[in-house]
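Service request form, structural biology core

Requester: graduate student, group of Dr. S.
Request type: structure prediction, single chain
Budget code: on file
Notes: please return the result as structure tokens.

Sequence provided:
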Amino acid sequence: LYLQKEVLDKAWDHYHRVLEMVPGHCDVLNNLGVLMLKKDAPQQAIDYFTQALVQDEAHHQARLNLAATFMQYNRYEQALSHYRELERLRFQSTEMHYNMGVALMAQGFLARALHYYKKVLALIPHHVPT
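Core staff response, request fulfilled:
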């Protein structure tokens, strides 16, 4: 609740109390990453998302957050590696496919980007950004 209400210092304190009781708690590590993004500390966010994935490599939300953070800073190849891992885990989302298209297009892989854009449009035919 503190994170949602952006009372970040209190959220930080409570998350660290949980980590004292349950070291490596994936959801807490993921949320600490989100908190660090809200504090404009992307490298620390990346560190927390990565710690969550060390605990559970299939933690979808941490992997999505990590990939989205890489997208935000134009680190497309790193983002794509995490999106590809999500695909390998059979995770699907329109946001993921859209971002994969954006990353591939930015790298000049237009035909591959089109493949992912078509996946988005198959699910949401009027998806304006796509």
